[in-house]
Amino acid sequence: MSLAVVGMIAGMALGFAGYFGGFGAFLLVAALGAVGFVVGRLLEGDMEFGDFFRTRGDRRR
Predict the structure, then answer these.
(1) Is residue 47 within 8 Å of residue 41, measured between CB atoms?
(2) Does pTM surpass 0.70?
(3) 25: burial class by Cβ within 10 Å (0-12, 13-18, 19+)?
(4) Do 17 and 32 form a contact (C-beta atoms < 8 A)?
(5) CA angle at residue 27 from 52 to 29, to 5 degrees?
(6) What is d(CA 37, CA 58) in angstroms, rounded to the nearest whole number?
């Protein structure tokens, strides 16, 4: 599945949450989506947990 399709599905989910559940539901869906994204990146190996605690100058290139 391409990133454009994934982005479209995420946007539609946020739109439905905002329309039917209000702004609070929109924020909840957005926050849980961000958490899911980070967990997915961690599980795929694209990101390491230590990346959140390194300073800008200490990052690998």
Answers:
(1) yes
(2) no
(3) middle
(4) no
(5) 80
(6) 24
CB neighbours of residue 51 within 10 Å:
13
Q: Mind listing the pLDDT tens digit for each residue in 24-58? A: 988 998 888 888 888 877 788 777 777 777 776 66
Concatenated DSSP letters of 40-61: HHHHHTSS-GGGGTS-GGG---
Query: Which residue bears the tokens 């200490």?
Result: 58
- 60/50 Cα distance (integer angstroms): 11
Sorted by sequence, the CB contacts under 8 Å of residue 30 that are 6+ apart come out as: 14
User: Can you give the pLDDT at residue 44?
Assistant: 80
